[in-house]
């Protein structure tokens, strides 16, 4: 009996020997970002790790080893600023968009670090084996991760962009790797390559300003933090919310892992009114959602009326994520609801079209299910995602400024009556689904790899230890120029000496001839 008890205890203990304490920091008040973090942390919890999610959102059906630190007051930033800021800035210049983003980040981080729960966390003796951070240049959150955990893993929720490339020193040639702004295809003409190069150079200078602002925040709330470059060196791994079927291929280093689509679990069956609505829509359903950050209710009335008039004339049902359920006099074919199980709806056989803001999660879910799209991008990476879909032939782009009843009707007509869009996205779906490992399993594997190998810093290239002038071989180029210059100088001197010698001999020879002639005369 004692032997049986000992054996049972061993069975319980052994699987948990390698389990780690993991902190997830997903502090942006964006539901889509929280969904990604929640899926990842639940996947880690399922492997026995003790996880803690730090987020403005709470989750449902938590495993027993899944803890939460919910930051309620961060929502005031979302309610007061985010939706309206994005709508107002979507037609702004690149500089204005960047300034707006910086201002938003500063306000949000001040609220975040002034939260009592964050203050208590920083000043507690609680420490973690690893922190997973949602990061896009907000170094203050990296400083918090370094303070709280032995290792740091970054989760780039908008996929590959300037920031992860800067951090890993992965090559990103401007000739074929487009920047987040402006949105160019990977096959750029001469003018586009020129603008892309100028943008890359501009990002470097803008990034220094952003790093300086972030350093002020770090010194204010975490004054004993290491330098910014030491914080970068503390990062073990970067998980990218993308896949080569979602963006144009580009160079990566071993430290960068593609995990796009990790939120795509098996679709659940619809229930209640939604199930009835979808099942009875034999003519087909159009799904319309502007995501979790943009409120359809914030769209100006003229555009809103144009959208409704367009939908009213369609022979299809329309399911619309709309934040106000008391909208007056809607056409009978339109159903509005505050929140939708989007990935489950996109998997339904009666879905014909998805009208989206172009967020990466929405685009990923539509590609996975082979549903063609109309993209109305507003902010951030949405323009790039929609442009990528337009280039690959599975999406039609309608700019928000040009959104009218006529432009939306024309786009719907084009997508639904031209089979090319559905064929292209279904081909893209087959590529996306054809992976040796599920994205969530891949993410969990590499996080555990970092823990097993004490940070796995061997994944980094030595480029990280080089100064910028060494990285771009400017010192080597300088030496080459010096050698060429010295060679030219020496060659010039030799040439001058030869010329002098030849001139001297020539003059002597001429003098002798003249002397002879004078004697003969």
Automatic annotation (TrEMBL):
Signal peptide: 1-19
Keywords per UniProt: Glycosyltransferase, Membrane, Signal, Transferase, Transmembrane, Transmembrane helix
Predominant subcellular localization, coarse grouping: membrane
EC number: 2.4.1.17
Species annotation: Aquatica leii
Gene3D superfamilies from the UniProt entry: Glycogen Phosphorylase B
Coiled coil: none
Family assignment from sequence similarity: Belongs to the UDP-glycosyltransferase family.
Protein name: UDP-glucuronosyltransferase
GO cellular component: membrane
InterPro entries hit by this protein: UDP-glycosyltransferase, UDP_glucos_trans, UDP_glycos_trans_CS
């Amino acid at each position: 009996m004692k032997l049986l008890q000992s054996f049972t205890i061993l069975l319980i203990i052994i699987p948990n020997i390698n389990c780690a304490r993991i902190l997830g920091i997903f502090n942006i008040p964006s539901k889509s970002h929280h969904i990604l973090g929640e899926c990842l942390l639940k996947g880690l919890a399922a492997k026995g790790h003790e996880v803690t999610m730090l987020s403005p959102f709470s989750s449902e059906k938590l495993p027993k080893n899944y803890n939460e630190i919910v930051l309620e007051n961060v929502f005031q930033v979302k309610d007061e600023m985010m939706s309206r800021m994005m709508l107002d800035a979507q037609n702004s210049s690149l500089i204005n968009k960047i300034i707006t983003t910086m201002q938003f980040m500063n306000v949000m981080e001040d609220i975040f670090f002034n939260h009592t729960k964050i203050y208590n966390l920083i000043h507690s003796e609680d420490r973690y084996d690893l922190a997973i951070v949602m990061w896009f240049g907000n170094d203050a959150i990296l400083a918090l991760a370094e303070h709280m955990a032995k290792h740091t893993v970054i989760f780039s929720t908008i996929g590959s962009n300037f920031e992860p490339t800067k951090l890993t020193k992965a090559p990103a040639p401007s000739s074929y790797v487009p920047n987040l702004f402006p949105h160019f295809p990977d096959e750029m003409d001469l003018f586009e390559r020129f603008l892309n190069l100028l943008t890359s150079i501009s990002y470097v200078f803008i990034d220094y300003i952003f790093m300086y602002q972030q350093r002020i925040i770090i010194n204010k709330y975490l004054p004993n933090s290491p330098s910014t470059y030491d914080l970068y060196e503390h990062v073990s791994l970067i998980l990218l919310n993308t896949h080569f079927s979602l963006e144009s291929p580009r160079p990566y280093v071993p430290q960068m892992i593609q995990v796009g689509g990790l939120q795509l679990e098996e679709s659940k069956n619809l229930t209640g009114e939604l199930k009835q609505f979808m099942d009875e829509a034999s003519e087909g359903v159009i799904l319309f959602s502007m995501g979790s950050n943009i409120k359809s209710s914030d769209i100006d009335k003229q555009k809103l009326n144009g959208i409704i008039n367009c939908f009213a004339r369609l022979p299809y049902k329309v399911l619309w994520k709309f934040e106000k359920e008391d909208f007056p006099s809607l056409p009978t074919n339109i159903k509005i609801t505050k929140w939708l199980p989007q990935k489950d709806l996109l998997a339904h056989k009666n879905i014909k079209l998805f009208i989206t803001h172009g967020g990466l999660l929405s685009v990923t879910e539509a590609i996975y299910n082979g549903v063609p799209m109309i993209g109305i991008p507003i902010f951030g990476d949405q323009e790039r995602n929609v442009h990528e879909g337009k280039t690959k032939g599975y999406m039609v782009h309608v700019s928000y400024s040009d959104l009218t009843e006529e432009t939306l009707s024309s786009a719907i007509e084009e997508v639904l009556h031209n089979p090319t869009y559905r064929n292209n996205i279904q081909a893209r779906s087959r590529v996306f689904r054809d992976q040796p490992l599920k994205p969530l399993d891949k993410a969990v594997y590499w996080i555990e790899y970092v823990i097993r190998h004490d940070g796995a810093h061997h994944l980094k290239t030595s480029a990280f230890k080089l100064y910028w002038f060494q990285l771009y071989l400017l010192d080597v180029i300088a030496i080459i120029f010096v050698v060429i210059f010295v060679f030219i100088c020496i060659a010039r001197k030799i040439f001058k000496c030869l010329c002098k010698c030849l001139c001297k001999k020539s003059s002597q020879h001429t003098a002798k001839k003249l002397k002879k002639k004078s004697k003969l005369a």
